[in-house]
Automatic annotation (TrEMBL):
Organism this protein belongs to: Actinomyces urogenitalis DORA_12
Stated name of the protein: Uncharacterized protein
Superkingdom of this protein's organism: Bacteria
Family annotation (InterPro entries): DUF1846_C, DUF1846_N
Taxonomic lineage of the native organism: Bacteria, Bacillati, Actinomycetota, Actinomycetes, Actinomycetales
UniProt domain DUF1846: residue ranges: 1-152, 157-309
Pfam families tied to this protein: DUF1846 (PF08903), DUF1846_C (PF20921)
Length: 312
């Protein structure tokens, strides 16, 4: 905003007529204040202390209730005064007037938007929990989002992949992971001597999508052990288990001569948009792979090890 107003001032000084408007998707002005889409915006900006509110200037000027947020409402008197100084009069009577957001008119399935928004709030909650755990800060953001979840009538276990993850982690006493596939099926992954839980989960999901029997090993033990030896003997790794990037490379190599591996590898694009939950905080490698695959991941705010120092 400051950049635009500065440019307007200089244009005005040079005799050029210019104006200012903004495109801001959220909050959506013509949805109710308590609509899950707008509440999801609050959850996404919990670190900025943004709070949705009825635009009092719009209500006074037009007699219509619209939704805006605290920063826009607080700065509007200053903005209006600047317009008056630069242009002679303010072209807007409210913060909402400045926007060109038509997103609210594009919703074709309100129920789907509501459900997606609730899931986004839960994801933001877990993200805040993990950030606070890593940075050893007070639970300010997570508590703020917890209040929003209470307003929506949801809790963390309303995320379908959470309960099966926690159940598996409890039964195995080791890190576990779960993924929800496009058809709603939940596939699990547990920690073993050869694979980390995310790697196991990834292979199980690909097998399900490719229609391969769950008992089939996509990667032979003989192909995994040399990679483990390389990691621990030559690369200084203390963890012999294969991470997701190593598993995918091994799968790509195997696909050259194994039809099952090739079929599984061909299903990678089907994972885009899927949801994953893990019982421990992921390392940067697994996080990066899931991000590249377009998978939405949440983690319990628990470290996988008790090491004093951890690689980010």
């Amino acid at each position: 905003m400051a950049t635009c107003l500065s440019q307007m001032y200089h244009d005005h000084a040079r005799g050029l007529a210019s104006g200012y408007a903004k495109f801001e998707t959220f909050p959506i002005w013509n949805l109710p204040l308590d609509h899950p889409v707008n509440i999801a915006y609050e959850a996404a900006t919990a670190d900025l202390d943004d709070v949705n509110m009825i635009d009092p200037f719009h209500l006074a000027a037009h007699g219509v209730q619209t939704v805006n947020y605290n920063r826009d409402v607080e700065i509007f008197p200053v903005l209006s005064r600047l317009f008056e100084e630069i242009l002679g009069s303010s072209p807007y009577q409210s913060p909402t007037d400045m926007g060109v957001n038509m997103a609210g008119h594009c919703i074709s399935d309100d129920e789907a938007c509501r459900e997606a928004s609730k899931q986004e709030v839960i994801r933001r909650y877990y993200k805040a929990l993990v950030a606070e755990k890593r940075e050893m800060t007070d639970p300010v953001q997570s508590e703020r989002i917890a209040l929003l979840m209470s307003k929506l009538g949801i809790d963390r276990e309303d995320r379908p992949v959470v309960p099966p993850t926690l159940k598996l982690a409890k039964s195995t006493k080791a890190p576990a992971a779960a993924i929800e596939l496009p058809d709603g099926t939940i596939e699990l992954g547990k920690t073993s001597e050869l694979l980390g839980c995310c790697s196991a989960m990834l292979l199980n999901a690909l097998k399900r999508l490719a229609g391969i029997d769950s008992g089939v090993d996509l990667l032979a033990k003989e192909s995994i052990e040399p990679i483990q030896a390389l990691k621990t003997r030559h690369l200084g790794s203390r963890n012999p288990r294969l991470h997701t990037d190593e598993v995918l490379i091994a799968l790509a190599v195997s696909a050259n001569g194994d039809d099952n591996a090739a079929r599984a590898l061909a299903q990678l694009d089907s994972l885009r948009g899927c949801d994953v939950h893990t019982s421990t905080i992921l390392g940067s490698v697994d996080e990066g792979i899931f991000r590249q695959l377009g998978i939405q991941v949440t983690n319990e705010p628990v470290f996988a090890t008790k090491s004093l120092y951890r690689k980010r």
